[in-house]
Design a protein that fits this description.
three-stranded antiparallel β-sheet; two-stranded antiparallel ribbon
Length: about 130
Amino acid sequence: MHAHAQGIRELVYENTFITEPEGYGENTKFQRHKVQAVLKQVLKERMEKQKYDPVKGAQIAKQLADDLREKVKLLGYDRYKLIIQVTIGQKIGQAMRIVSRCLWDTTTDNFASEYFENESLYCVCQVYGLYYE
């Protein structure tokens, strides 16, 4: 720490040269099964009694994404950028396929996905964990 003339201290950080999640501890790598469990729990809690509403659909998806982000952050993936995609639609007998493609480092980056449906709607949630140094 450096002291300035006014008495305010400035923090100076040094590079750790840790370029992989394992360098920060055993459970810091994005673990798909843990995120999958969070997705399943949150979807069941939030969507089980939900009815499809085209007006509220976007707001529900945003709230769900925010809730998922907070719950996944609690797993301790501090060195990961989280990207969360939520798709909600009306279930009226149609077929639906959601596909994604990513360019990433397969040794550190990963994703989890979960699907939920009831009588009136379907919901697909995807969480991507991208490691950053």
